[in-house]
């Protein structure tokens, strides 16, 4: 595989130059900004998620500037790490599981995604966004199961699902709307994802604080 091969995957990109996707590149600052804002409001695993959130912005910036396969890896790996860390945090703190059961359930996300992503891929128009679809599905499952145990947390997770679905729509529409909107819509995917991932950290933080107060 040629790790330096040019990738032209988004409407905004018109060539192989570094700044060929200026909006897609610059809007990654939203991830870093969300990480900085949430850092002051959270603690523990919340701050770990903030660090990963900042790395997501850096990795995506590399992909939308260099636009090469190695940069694509730098783009997607931090996202996967964020998802896994959040699932672990949810298993531990939403369900009150100890370390090893929480880790065991977290690992199950890999086969869950491996099974569900190809099924989403069968839906017309979803394209590569199908690989992200298992995430809102899992969050929705957690929200449903938590609705009686922790209704406020369940509501927060449901809001996260709604934001992510709108965000995924922006990613999906980038190609189909390209002729009418040359700047594309992928930059909205960045902005909305930054909001959504930051929101999810806030949901976790509020849940843990509420649990601590209830335990006093």
Topology:
Blueprint lengths: L21 H5 L2 H11 L5 H22 L2 H25 L5 H9 L1 H13 L12 H12 L5 H23 L12 H29 L2
Task: Write structural notes for this entry.
With about 220 residues, this protein is mainly alpha-helical. The chain has one domain (about 20-215). Helices cover about 70% and strands about 0% of the residues. It has nine helices and no strands. It has helices spanning about 20-25, 30-40, 45-65, 70-95, 100-105, 110-120, 135-145, 150-175, 185-215.
Notable features of this structure?
single chain, 216 residues, mainly alpha
Concise structural overview:
This protein has 216 residues and is mainly alpha-helical. Helices cover 69% and strands 0% of the residues. Helix 2 (29-39) runs parallel beside helix 9 (186-214).
**Largest pleated sheet:** none
Strand content: under 5%
How are helices and strands ordered from N to C? HHHHHHHHH
For the secondary structure, the number of strands is 0
Shape category? globular
Low-confidence stretches: none
Q: Indicate the mean pLDDT.
A: 96
- Give the N-terminus to C-terminus distance in angstroms: 57 Å
* Count of separate DSSP helical elements: 9
Helix content: 55-70%
Give the class from helix and strand content and strand pairing: mainly alpha
């Amino acid at each position: 595989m040629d790790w330096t091969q040019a990738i032209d995957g988004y409407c905004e990109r018109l060539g192989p130059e570094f700044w060929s996707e200026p909006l897609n590149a610059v809007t990654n600052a939203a991830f870093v900004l969300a990480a900085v804002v949430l850092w002051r409001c959270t603690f523990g695993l919340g701050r770990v998620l903030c660090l990963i959130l900042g790395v997501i912005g850096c990795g995506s910036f590399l992909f939308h500037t260099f636009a090469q396969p190695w940069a694509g890896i730098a783009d997607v790996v931090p996202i996967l790490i964020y998802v896994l860390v959040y699932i672990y945090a949810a298993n531990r703190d939403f369900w009150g599981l100890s370390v090893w059961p929480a880790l065991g359930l977290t690992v199950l996300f890999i086969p869950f995604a491996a099974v569900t992503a190809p099924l989403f891929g069968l839906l017309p128009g979803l394209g590569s966004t199908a690989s992200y679809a298992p995430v809102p599905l899992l969050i929705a499952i957690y929200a449903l199961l938590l609705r009686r145990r922790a209704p406020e947390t369940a509501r927060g997770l449901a809001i996260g699902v709604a934001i992510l679905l709108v965000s995924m729509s922006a990613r999906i529409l980038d190609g189909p709307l390209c002729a009418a909107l040359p700047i594309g819509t992928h930059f909205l995917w960045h902005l909305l994802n930054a909001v959504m991932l930051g929101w999810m950290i806030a949901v976790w933080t509020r849940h843990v604080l509420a649990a601590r107060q209830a335990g006093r």
